[in-house]
């Protein structure tokens, strides 16, 4: 999607054009952070045959994201969203209904791309944007798993996109299909009717998640593989905009898993990367590279 992010300067009419879409953010974060480790990233979606779609393709090319799995829909536009900022944090407004990405279907999946993936990352937003996209997500998981891939899953709940009862049913069905489940604390409280991070982690294990990384925003994260549980403290930064921070976490986590880290080391790296991602406007521009994350961790923040 194309992003327009309201600045916090003297003139609230100023909007910065950027790029978004949680799974795109994740792929770009993975590409930036995985470059020096030799970990590549690709993307599966649809864009419109319009200027915004071409801008996104140029972005992915510049970031080194393999767009072989990206199709152009001649009959639907590329989605757009706006981010405004207030006392309660950032707020999203979407022009996404009927977009090219929402028209993804099982028949449109690029089978060769999915069969060559080491890890497939799936988002609850992709499941929420349309019934056909939801079906495509489940089919993609099955195809990738059958070919030997592992599955990363972020429920990324957006209650504006679908009824909570449906979201709960689809997300609960997805959790046992994943090797790593990466929800935010805010989302998980709504999904599982628990306030305690430990109770949420226990519930996800009960549903069949082998490894859970519960993202707690400024509070860091909780990592559990079912045998060991660790709380990783948040890192202090001068935060400007949290848009895309959770997506950055997901990309960083998967990169470090593929580089050989265990879930706990991967989460510590991802925790630092996500903190850095809040220090600029927009979902993509502030995403760090691996050198910046390591320097930040070394500084002891």
Order of SSEs: EEHEHEEEHEHHEHEHHEEEHHH
Strand numbers in spatial order across the main sheet: 7-8-9-10-11-12
Query: What spatial form do the alpha-carbon principal axes imply?
Result: globular
The fraction of residues in strands falls at 15-25%
At CATH level 2, the architecture is 3-Layer(aba) Sandwich
Mean pLDDT: 94
Structural class: alpha/beta
CATH class: Alpha Beta
Task: Enumerate the spans where pLDDT stays under 50 for 5 or more consecutive residues.
Answer: none
Radius of gyration computed on alpha carbons:
18 Å
Distance between the termini: 33 Å
Give the number of helices: 11
The largest pleated sheet is described as: 6 strands, mixed
Query: What's the CATH H-level homologous superfamily?
Result: Ribokinase
Fraction of residues in helices? 25-40%
Give the tally of β-strands.
Answer: 12
Number of domains: 1
Q: Could you state the oligomeric state of the chains shown?
A: single chain
Please tell me about this protein's structure.
This protein is α/β, with parallel strands linked by helices and 301 residues long. The protein has one domain (22-76, 104-298): Ribokinase (UDP-N-acetylmuramoyl-L-alanine:D-glutamate ligase, 3-Layer(aba) Sandwich). Helix content is 40%, strand content 22%. It has eleven helices and twelve strands. It has helices at 22-34, 51-63, 111-115, 124-128, 131-146, 164-174, 185-192, 197-207, 245-258, 263-276, 290-298, and strands at 2-6, 15-19, 41-48, 65-73, 80-86, 89-95, 119-123, 150-154, 180-181, 211-215, 221-224, 229-232. It has a six-stranded mixed sheet, with helices on both faces. Strand 3, helix 2 and strand 4 (65-73) form a beta-alpha-beta unit. Helix 9 runs antiparallel to helix 10. It is globular. The protein starts with a strand and ends with a helix. The mean pLDDT is 94.
